[in-house]
Amino acid sequence: MLRNDKAVSVSVGFMLMFAITVLVFTGLIISFYTLTQNSEKSAMRESFKILGEGLAIKITTVDTLINMTGRYSGTINTLEYEFSMPESIAAKSYSINITNSTNQIIMESDNGARIAVPFSTSVNFTRRNIYSGAGNYVLRYINNSIDIEER
């Protein structure tokens, strides 16, 4: 009985197979998690791109209305354009930074998704930071300046 090695080889084989199985399974879980994180960021970037371009179009529309009225000798004291933004994207909060120095709409989320969309205006645009959650906003033109406010 002391010279029989069969029990040792079976238990060592089991431990090796178990360790290999655990390592392969852990590798699969980690790679799946990384894949879902990358696809979430990619989906958020695409949503940001759509929202950012839509916001740039709204700003350009207000600027175009102001310029068209001025070309035909009209005056505008106040102009308002109401719009809404989603409270979250992919169940994550986000922020919008609209700069007037570089004329960019920068959208970013806590998970690292970030895009920048350019826009242009012929009038002054007041720099603004918007955080998700409010939903309803208004683009307001007063005194040769465009501003965004929460409703």
What would you say this structure looks like, in words?
Helices cover 44% and strands 28% of the residues. It has 151 residues and is α+β, with helices and mostly antiparallel strands. It has a 4-stranded mixed β-sheet with strand order 1-7-8-5, covered by helices on one side. A 4-stranded antiparallel β-sheet has the order 4-3-2-6, with helices on one face. It is rod-shaped. It starts with 5 loop residues before the first helix and ends with a strand. The mean pLDDT is 87.
Strand order of the largest sheet: 1-7-8-5
Number of domains: 1
Backbone shape? rod-shaped
Quick check: average pLDDT?
A: 87
Output the radius of gyration: 28 Å
Tell me roughly what share of residues is in helical segments: 40-55%
Write the H/E string, N to C.
HEEEEEEEE
Percent in strands: 25-35%
Largest sheet: 4 strands, mixed
Structural class of the helices, strands and pairings?
A: alpha+beta
Distance N to C terminus = 86 Å
Number of helical stretches of at least 4 residues = 1
Total DSSP E strands:
8
Low-confidence stretches: none
